[in-house]
Design brief:
alpha+beta, four-stranded antiparallel beta sheet, 67% helix
Length: 418
């Protein structure tokens, strides 16, 4: 358990080194200051303290004073002190200690899962923030292009070849884009607030100067992913051990307890017998055995442990089924997204050919070619935005896979414990 306590303080190193230094600092702050992580870690430490409470020595001291003293040959029994230590049946303490260790392991895995969730949430916020910044950049480029289209439309009206309806339509598009621009800026501010709060920092530190590059999709062999490395799965494995040991402990608690102790009896002399000398107090070593008569509660405890084991097995099956469903859904979405990426790349290439043709028309003196060029450039910006948003989708799907199976997290754990 000691090396795991050290590991809990070092888990922040699992994040990928490809991220910028400022992102690493954000993760570091989250590891040190995130409230939910603190709660989960404190729960783990508390479970370790429970182990320290288990020990063989728990002596009891009893004292009694007789209101009606018992007559003895050389005096009256006035008071009695009894010091007794009971010992559970052989192996009972080891069984309880093993159970507490397994319970601490459950808490430890819950802490790891909470760390996995914090990682997932922070990556999600960073991806959403990058997505909003990509859209904002595209909007800025579209607004510049729209200004050129507006100037061209106004020039057409002045020359008598344009229509006022086109100017109004372009103005409406400009209003819509400027509103979207404000909404995206608000969304970025909200996401930065969430990131700062996740890291235990003040929202007043906005704007957040963090550069985050979207990770590229890496081919994943979905059939080779192991569920057993996920903290949720490991928590269920540890919980199974808890109930196995609880069953054994219930059986041992139904066995006899042995005890050893010492009785000290205070004897006062009888009235009128002082000539016989002072009464002698009595010291008596003693051995005790405690036999439980009604064993039904111990059998019920064993039965309950068996039923809990069945529940954990069912929960493991349910969790594996849920993971497999989610993985199948992610695999299908990845295939669709990769196909769309390929489509947009082909369309972008073909649109470049259209741009070249429009430029050639302008050089040849075609008056309509410039208007067509601006429209083709707008289409190009839309295609590039769609292509970038598919990269965002792939980053989100990659984040889902990393969360479901804690891939990077558990790779770090294995390397650290080795």
């Amino acid at each position: 358990m000691l090396n795991k306590s050290i590991l809990c303080g070092l888990f922040l190193l699992l994040w990928q080194s490809s991220f910028g230094q400022s992102v690493d600092e954000l993760y570091l702050d989250a590891a040190q200051n995130n409230p939910s992580l603190k709660v989960a870690y404190q729960a783990y430490l508390n479970s370790l303290q429970e182990i320290e409470r288990i020990g063989p020595l728990d002596p009891t001291l009893n004292a009694g004073y007789f209101l009606r003293p018992m007559m003895m040959p050389d005096g009256e029994q006035r008071a009695m002190f009894s010091l007794m230590q009971m010992f559970p049946w052989f192996g009972t303490l080891n069984s309880e200690r093993a159970m507490r260790n397994s319970m601490a392991e459950v808490r430890y895995q819950a802490f790891l899962q909470k760390a996995n969730e914090v990682l997932y949430q922070m990556r999600s916020f960073l991806i959403e923030r990058e997505s909003a910044q990509i859209q904002l950049k595209s909007l800025n480029e579209k607004l510049l292009l729209l200004e050129n289209m507006q100037e061209l439309a106004r020039a057409g009206i002045e020359s008598g070849r344009g229509e006022l309806a086109m100017v109004i339509k372009l103005n409406q598009q400009q209003d819509q884009m400027e509103t979207e621009q404000l909404l995206l800026q608000d969304a970025i501010e909200e996401l930065e607030t969430k990131l700062l709060l996740m890291a235990g920092r003040s929202p007043s530190e906005k704007p957040l100067d963090v550069k985050y590059d979207l990770p590229n999709w890496q081919e994943v062999d979905f059939d080779q992913i192991e569920l057993e490395l996920n903290p949720q799965w490991q928590a269920l494995v540890a919980e199974s051990e808890v109930y196995n040991q609880q069953k054994d402990l219930a059986r041992r608690e139904g066995l006899p307890m042995l005890g050893a102790g010492l009785n000290y009896t205070i004897v006062s002399p009888l009235d009128g017998m002082s000539n016989m000398g002072p009464a002698k107090n009595i010291i008596q070593p003693m051995f005790a055995i405690s036999l439980p008569i009604y064993r039904s509660k111990y059998k019920a405890s064993q039965k309950l442990a068996e039923m809990e084991l069945q529940r954990v097995d069912l929960e493991k099956g349910s969790l594996e089924n849920e993971w497999r469903r989610n993985l199948a859904s992610i695999e299908a979405e990845v295939a669709k997204s990769l196909k769309r990426v390929d489509l947009y790349e082909r369309q972008i290439t073909r649109n470049v050919d259209l741009l070249n043709l429009a430029n050639a028309g302008i050089e040849a003196g075609d008056n309509e070619a410039f208007n067509e060029l601006l429209q083709i450039e707008m289409d190009q910006l839309n295609l590039e935005l769609q292509w970038e948003m598919e990269k965002v989708t792939l980053a989100k799907l990659r984040n889902e896979v990393m969360f479901l199976f804690a891939i990077d997290f558990n790779d770090f754990i294995k390397e650290t414990e080795n």
